UniProtKB/TrEMBL annotation:
InterPro entries: N_methyl_site, Pilin-like
Protein name as it appears in the record: Prepilin-type N-terminal cleavage/methylation domain-containing protein
Any Pfam family: N_methyl
Keyword terms: Membrane, Transmembrane, Transmembrane helix
Species of provenance: Vibrio nitrifigilis
NCBIfam families, alphabetized: IV_pilin_GFxxxE
Length: 154
């Protein structure tokens, strides 16, 4: 009688069980993509704010409105302080294209805060409480504005 080669049913079941265990332990690493996407989106918003601030500064310098700590409006209607967009909706909020439609934002004396548009309340306290936001702080006479990403709660 000729002996046939191949795998038994038990061997196949054992291999499937081992693959299942490996998949269960590896899946969380690959399924955590939403948090990474949120963090990347915040980095993109930071880049957009920094880029807009640089462009607005150039325009303010041309208009001669880059040397005052008092808010001034450019011909385009953007509010600037020291030539950079002010940390308000009339400043950086108006300078960044799409900010008002894609993000939730608010400002106070500590800066301009923006987060994802699915946030229900638009107060600085609520936005900063998410620990998933971008903060833009006004320029000073000696320093450009600062843009900070807080993504520990994403």
């Amino acid at each position: 009688m000729k002996r046939q080669g191949g795998f038994t049913l038990i061997e196949l079941v054992v291999v499937i069980v081992i693959l299942g265990i490996l998949a269960v332990t590896a899946a969380p690493k690959f399924l955590n993509l939403q948090d990474d996407a949120k963090k990347s989106a915040l980095q993109g918003l930071k880049g957009a704010m920094d880029g807009a601030a640089g462009i607005v500064y150039g325009k303010a310098a041309v208009e001669g409105k880059d040397s005052s700590g008092t808010a001034q409006n450019l011909d385009s209607g953007i509010s600037v302080i020291w030539g950079y967009p002010a940390a308000t909706s009339a400043g950086i909020g108006a300078a960044v294209n799409g900010l008002s439609t894609d993000w939730t934002f608010d400002s106070d004396s500590t800066g301009f805060f923006a987060t994802f548009s699915n946030t229900t309340n638009t107060t600085v306290t609520t936005i900063s409480g998410t620990s998933c936001y971008v903060q833009y702080v006004n320029a000073t006479s000696s320093a450009a504005p600062t843009t900070t990403v807080v993504d520990s709660g994403c």
